[in-house]
Amino acid sequence: MLKTFLRLIDKISVPQTAFAHCDIPCGIYDPHEAQMAAHTIVRMVNMINELKASSADPDFEGRKKIISQISRLTKVKEEHAEQVKHQVRIIWGDYFKPEHLEKYKGLGDLVFKILKQASKARQEVNLEAARQLLESVQKFAEIFWETKGRGTMRVKSGYPTEGEVVLPK
Amino acid sequence: MFFPSKQSLRSSSFDKLRTAGLKFPFSRFIVSDHSMEPAFFEGDHVLTFNWVSSKKRDVVVFSQNNNYFLKRVERLRGDLIWVLGDNREMSSRLASIKKTQVIGRVVLKY
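Above: the input entities. Below: the structure tokens describing the complete assembly.
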């Protein structure tokens, strides 16, 4: 009854359009997801490093268990490294303009560095590499928000990595 | 129950009301595009309730650059809300908006 009534009203007065798109260039960009993905990589490396076998020479069941755990953690680490690259590539390709490159001389190098660091984070179980990637993504986020005229702040993420996230003020 | 006319939803009038701190209790929208599938398909009509705060997993309509967008709330922090489409094939990245950009929460699809 209510739905019929609303449809009737809509025929008299057509509602506004609400767009349900995002990847069509619409001015909506945010480096937050890249930061979350970089934090996830740090977390996965920590979790892999914390894994312990049941003994120095585990039996078949023990081996199966730890291989399964490492596989799962590695899969998530791989996916999030790819996610970092994906998110940074979108902002790099769709958002940044030549004038940004002119103003932020190191931006191109920073993006190149992030892509390489993300690849390294995929290939290795290397906490230092994961942290370096996170730091680079945070710098990227700071530049991004600066181009929008927004100051930034680094706040505690609240994630198990205990690291920070860059947020616009 | 009060249903605004098409004219009343136009940005100029809407902005005046928003500036005055007033909001219509309800707004009507037609969905365009596919990033909220399968919950919302192109051509669906939705009703928003505008006198309520957003919470995680709500579907909201917000305004940006004189357009309206339909997205799901993924996280909230301070004055910011991160939104994302349900259809990850089309909407693969979070976007942050200010709480003040939210028009209302979708309460009915019709």
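Note for the figure: Chain A has a mean pLDDT of 91.
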